[in-house]
Amino acid sequence: MAALLLLILPAMAARQVALVIEGELAPPARHGLAKLQDALRAKGYEIAADAAQADYVILAGTGASAAAQLGAPVPAGREALTIWRGRYLDKPAIVLSGGDASGLMYAALDTADRIGWSAGDPFQYVRNTTEKPYLAERGVSMYTMQRAYFESRLHDEAHWKRYFDTLAADRI
């Protein structure tokens, strides 16, 4: 019985993911990384303070410095992003790099979505990609057909939170 317990305890230990962030981040990047942490916690992972003790590592930042860690392409331009898989400290790792804070937010939101799909390895569905927007200017139109319904949403804080989360996730 004791031997069985010794075999089960390491398997039950919480898996850890270290989030290594370079520099001070702007609010859009912090938002995306917060959603990424929420996705990891929802899958049962703990956020580790140190990459040396973690099972997985995520390196995040803007510009060339984060991408250079794993030899990933550097995102070029506003809202551009790079998501790159590799190894860091001999552990599975991902680089999330943005051309600016919005690009890093888009990389983090895309990765959070893919982590939500995974069963075992959190990076199972994360793919290497470097992309930038095709259109620099994007927008949304709302058409009001029922004034009372439209105005009821204007004062609903939960509505605006969902609305802006949707805009960020859809890269608008």
Describe the 3D structure.
By secondary structure, the chain is of the alpha/beta class. It contains six helices and six strands; from the N terminus they run αβαββαββαβαα. The chain has helices at 2-12, 27-42, 64-68, 101-117, 147-154, 157-169, and strands at 15-21, 45-48, 56-62, 81-88, 91-98, 129-131. It has a six-stranded mixed β-sheet. A hairpin with a 2-residue loop joins strand 4 (81-88) and strand 5 (91-98). Helix 2 (27-42) packs parallel to helix 4. It is globular and about 60 Å long.
Largest sheet: 6 strands, mixed
Helical content band: 40-55%
> For the terminal residues, how far apart are their CA atoms?
56 Å
**Number of helical regions:** 6
Q: How many strand segments?
A: 6
Envelope shape: globular
List the secondary-structure elements in sequence, H or E.
HEHEEHEEHEHH
β-strand percent reads 15-25%
The computed structural class is alpha/beta
Average pLDDT score: 86
Strand order of the largest sheet: 2-1-3-5-4-6
As residue ranges, the low-confidence spans are 3-12
Q: Tell me the radius of gyration.
A: 19 Å
